[in-house]
Amino acid sequence: MFQPTVFVAQLQVLDQFVHHFTYRRALRECVDAAGNEVPAFWTYTSDAHLLCAIAAWCMVFGADNENNATHWKLVFENDAALVASFRQALQEELGLTLDAWRDYHRDMVAFRNNYVSHRAVHPPAVPNLDVARDVVLLYDRWVRDVALANDNFAYPLLRDDAAQMMDDNRVYLGHVMTSVRALRLPAQPV
Fold it and tell me: How confident is the model at residue 68 (pLDDT cuts 50, 70, 90)?
């Protein structure tokens, strides 16, 4: 049975993921384009969005246990047929076989556990967040198709917000970076 309160809670977390992912992507593009002309503040800000995005993704797709109230399987009370349906959608639409999904999931959780939540001496590499974004956007649409096809659900699709947000942020951050580069900051001590 569909659990609408779980889905709304998941959407709030996944919306945070989309925001952090988008801010990270747009900010990283600007920082990379500016090179050494911007203070380290912007790199740290970009990295903070990365960490928040991974933490949010793992709140929905991470640990599969009773302590994770927003886990994706709980939206349908762990219905095996619907779990299989989402996994099939992952393969058909994103090319993620069950093994590839398990590997990606493992990498995301390992990065969260060894870099975001705790710090390992030799942390794993940052997973490809484009895959995480694609999983989030697919999941949002898939739940609506499966459970809300005939409902007038007021929350907009995350993919629609993400596209507009990316365009807006690129323009905004382009202006910000131009202003930052124009500032004459004192030389940093060596």
Answer: confident
User: What are the tens digits of pLDDT across the range 136-145?
Assistant: 999 999 998 8
Q: Within the chain, where are the H helices?
A: 4-34, 40-61, 80-94, 98-111, 129-147, 158-182
Per DSSP, 3 falls in state -
Phi, psi of 71 (to 5 degrees): -60, 140
- Which positions ≥6 away from 177 have C-beta within 8 Å? 30, 31, 33, 34, 38, 42
pTM for the whole structure: 0.87
Would the pLDDT of 166 be above 90?
Answer: no
* Backbone angle region of 64, left / alpha / beta, with phi > 0 → left and psi within -120 to 50 → alpha: beta
Give the chain's end-to-end CA distance (angstroms, integer): 61
Residue 21 token pair = 């992912």
Burial class from Cβ neighbours inside 10 Å (0-12, 13-18, 19+) for residue 76 reads buried
Torsion of CA 22, 142, 10, 166, to 10 degrees: 10
Distance of CA 89 to the CA centre of its chain: 18
Residue 117's region, left for phi above 0, alpha for psi from -120 to 50, else beta, is: alpha
**74 with 139: CB under 8 angstroms?**
no
69-111 pLDDT, tens digit each: 899 998 888 789 999 999 999 999 999 999 999 999 999 999 9
